[in-house]
Every structure is written in structure tokens, then in C-alpha cells.
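Onboarding guide, step 5: your first structure request.
Type a short instruction followed by the sequence, for example:

Predict the 3D structure of this protein.
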Amino acid sequence: MILDGKCPTGPIEKTWDKHRFDMKLVNPANKRKYKIIVVGTGLAGGAAAASLGELGYNVEAFCYQDSPRRAHSIAAQGGINAAKNYPNDGDSIYRLFYDTIKGGDFRAREADVWRLAQVSNNIIDQCVAQGVPFARDYAGYLDNRSFGGAQVSRTFYARGQTGQQLLLGAYSALARQIKAGTVKMFPRTEMLDLIVVDGEAKGITIRDMITGEIRTHVADAVVLCTGGYVNVFYLSTNAMGCSVTAIWKAHKKGAFLANPCYTQIHPTCIPQHGEHQSKLTLMSESLRNDGRCWVPKKHGDHRAPGEIPEEDRDYYLERKYPSFGNLAPRDIASRAAKEQCDDNRGVGPGGRGVYLDFAASIKRLSEDTIRERYGNLFEMYEKITDENAYKVPMRIYPAPHYSMGGLWVDYNCESNVPGLFVLGEANFSVHGANRLGASALMQGLADGYFVIPYTIANYLAKTSPGKVKADNAECKKSVEDVNNNLKRLMSMNGKRTPSDFHRELGKIMWENVGMARSEQSLKTALQEIPKLREEFWKNLKVSGSGADFNQQLENAGRVADFFEFAELMTRDALHRNESCGGHFRVEHQMPDGEAKRDDENYCYVGAWEFKGVDKEPELHKEPLKFDNVHLAIRSYK
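The system replies with C-alpha cells like these:
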């Protein structure tokens, strides 16, 4: 099947405005008749629920945390992009559009990325009006800094806690609607199934994580805003509760999953320091504004960093990519760090680290200036490593961070299942094969504040409100299926915990489907994953019961979904015989080691249809056309 992204035609500068005018509307009095379910309350979900509630729809919002404020968007550090061009350094909507398309290695839709760049400026105005405390310069104007993959300063920030401040802004808007009664909030609930009636998404089945109750919620449309899936690697920068479960359940009910092999490895994380770890800690990319990455020039040089003179240091990003230097895009910077460590020039325990050094910036700007810009990040680093990064360089190493793949959606953010909309990191739409830093917050808020309020009306205007009731046969079947699956997880009484299985799956994925992939490594993973999954369903141990708060049961269900998803992710990486962005196949690289795309054969979105566990999924393609940006070899040199 050739998929239609329903992208508007005509001059790209007018596409979103024309599309908004062409879409159908729901009048204010009729909005009250419709119910919308929003799953997830991060930036995309929180913004969507608040915006839809403000418009007058009845919204039910769900999150597995005890409060919407704990959504993983809170962990974002460095900033949010917008094309306001306050520094007057040459930025524009077109340049943000171009940088994002190029940063994604020409594997994203032009129309979607243009819209993202166009509404980016509205996001900043919205957040300032909410009181988000963006950094300001001496004159009181909003300040900007640089991020990887751009030669302009377009990133708005709040020290190293931008995600937290933006989420509090969205939460304040959401809380207002909860008070007004347009949004009903359901914390501590986990979506375990999508209810599809006559081919349309009409509700979800959830588990109350406190009482264990399984129940359904029906609505006229469902909006998934449940984030990414990189916890398939076990160790990642994501919160431990982040999972693939919501989008995987939707996938098993017919929603296509697009480009699952596109995952982002963040170059600036604190290196793993032991087998006991359950997650990794992000150090914001913004640190590369003032920090310089280097390793010793000599193999196996174990001197303290202060004892290594300048002539014995290799500032490898500045050497390899002089135009962008330490602000090379994430995929390139990550592979470059791995390359140094593989060459026996890494630092720290096991040689799996590189230095991020602030000495030159402190000398040039003063320690107080660096403290003002990044103080909370330095404090966090010291708490974890017991090292003062003002005095000695930070040690960093790449780690799984973000998912560019996700459920396939058209230009309206609607999946191939009518009535199922997908926002933010849970969809595939704008980042291609590599996300530029500070674009995740931009996408989440763009989708939630400025896209879904228009596009969901276009769907609702064509459907009658309240078509499906809670006693529908599909609702009953969904509850039965969820209960049967939970009983199966509880019934084995084996000897291994869910976390034990998850850790082993993560090792398989990191070693074979991680930063570098090969045909052989991917085929190895496709042999090992089913074997481990088979043992999981024979030797799993879940203590407690399903009738109360049970984190082991929650984890078991998420790991079961990761097992099935891991196969699809690996299969997608195997079928794509090219390197692009974060998908690096060692067989497909330039003489200088850069990724080698194959535009003739793989310039498409690969969207997979579920056919059953242990059955070959079916691949559907959406060709990518570039009318405003010419396909070119990506260079940051």
C-alpha cells in the first residue's frame, strides 16, 4: 500500500493557512456534545487537553503518574527552538525548516516540518503569556543560545530546566480547565488497550494502578501523547516508566508503526558507572555551547586531564567539523565520541567517555557566567559523579534518548485508524532520521496548542457524538482480553523478575541495534529476541496480585510489549539498506565514515502493519517528495 500523507499542495508558505481554512469546523454549542480522550499529560498531551478543554470539548485526560506535572517532558533541559531571530543573526522560518529537514537527513515530510517552523514563534508567545521564566539578557529581552545542527542562536531556555518550566506552564493551563470542568483528570491509570468500533477509535481500556480495576472509557476520538520507546534499550535517559505500551496496543489494533528503527543516541550523557544502574542521566546539549569535547591524542593516555597539555589533546569535533565544531548534530557527535573510544582514546572507567571541558569558557567569560547559564546541570553532575566540573572536565558518553519513529500519522496528526490522533514523540512526523536538539519541546507544544485544535474538528464534524456506549461488545471484549493477559503474566511463577528480562533484552538491543548496526548484528538480534521472549513467557515471576498497586505487574506488561516491539524495530533496521541520521549501517558509509543514504531506493516512510505475534508484518510506504529543499549529502564540515 502506498500511503497518502494528505499534505496540502501549493506554495509551502501558504499550505498550513490554506489547510486550516479548508478544514471543517464544529460550532461552539456543538463542541460540548463531543468527548475526547487524551492519553499522556506531557507537553503534547497537557497542551492538547488544555486547548481542547478551552475550546469547549469534554476531555478525559489520563496519565500513569500521580500528577500531570511528573510527565517525562519535565526532564528536558536545554531549550526550545523558534524562528524569532531575536539575535538578528540570519534566522528565519525557512532556515529553521531547512535545518530541521537537513538535520533529519531528508527523511521527514516537508509540509509537516514547515508547519512546525511556522507555528514555533506562536509557542514562545504562548509560554511567555503563561509566565514561563525564559532566560533574558541584560536589557530584559528573551535570550537565545545555540544548539547542534544550526549556525544561528534560536533556542529559548530556562537555565537547564526548560522542560520543567514549559510543563508547568502547560499544567497551569490544564489545571484551569480541570477546575472549569471541561477536563476530567485520571492520574495513576495506564492504557492497556485501544477500543476500535467499526474501524474507528472510540475509547481505551485502562488499569487503575492503585486498585487494579480494569475499566473502559469511550469517547468520540482518542489522542495519544505517550512519548517514546527508547527504554527498549533498558538503559536510557528516559524515566523508567516510559514505555512503548500505548502505541504498541494501538499498533496491534491496526495503527501503522512508522520508522521504528529511527532512535536518537544523545552524545552528552553521564557514562554508565556500573551494572546496577537502571537509567542514565542526560547532560544538556546546551553545554556544548561553552564546553569543548576532547580526548587524548595518544592511545591509552591515562593521565589526569589537567596533566595533558594542549598539544596532546584532540578536539575531535572541531577538527572533523570546523563549520559547526562542538555543535555538530547529535547523531554525528555521538558516533564521533564512540569512534574515539573504540580507538582506545576514551577516558574514565573502561575508556567509555570523552571530556567536555569548560576551562576555556570560564577563562573567557568567568565562572559566574557559566554558573548562571548552567548551574543546576553542574550541581546535578557533581551529585552523581562527585566531581566539580568547574575544576575538572565533565566526562560524557552517548546514550539512548529519543524516538524519531512512532505511529504513522497524516498531515492532520491522524493515524490510519480514523479517530486516533497521535501527537509529539509518539508519532513519527517531523524529525526524520535524527532530531535536532531543542526540537522535541517545539513539536510537543506545536501539536498540542496549535495543530490538534484545528485538525480534530475536521474529523469530529463528520461523526455523530456519542455513537459508542460503554456496553458495546468491543468494550467488553477489550476488558476480557486485558484481564486474560494480566492473568497470564501473573500465572507463571517462574524465577526471573521483569527487570531481569528487561536488562537482558536491553543488552541485546544496544549491542546489535544500537549506535552502529550491521546485517549480521541485526540478524543476530532477530534470533536472540524470540528465544528470550519464549523464556519470558515460561520463567517470569510476578509477585503480589493484580487487585492492588503492583509495580512488578506494570513492568511485566511493559516488558512483554518491548519484546514484541524490539523485533519490529530490528526488522525495520534490517530492511533499510542505507545509513541515514541515527540509523547507521556499517556496510553503508562514505570513505570518511559519514552516513551513506540511498535516496533512489529508501526515500520513503516505512510504515508497518501488525499481522500477529511471530508473523511477518506488512510494510507500507509513503514516498517522500522534496520540492522546497534539494536532496543533498548532509555535510557539517
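Each response can be followed by summary notes, for example: The mean pLDDT is 97.
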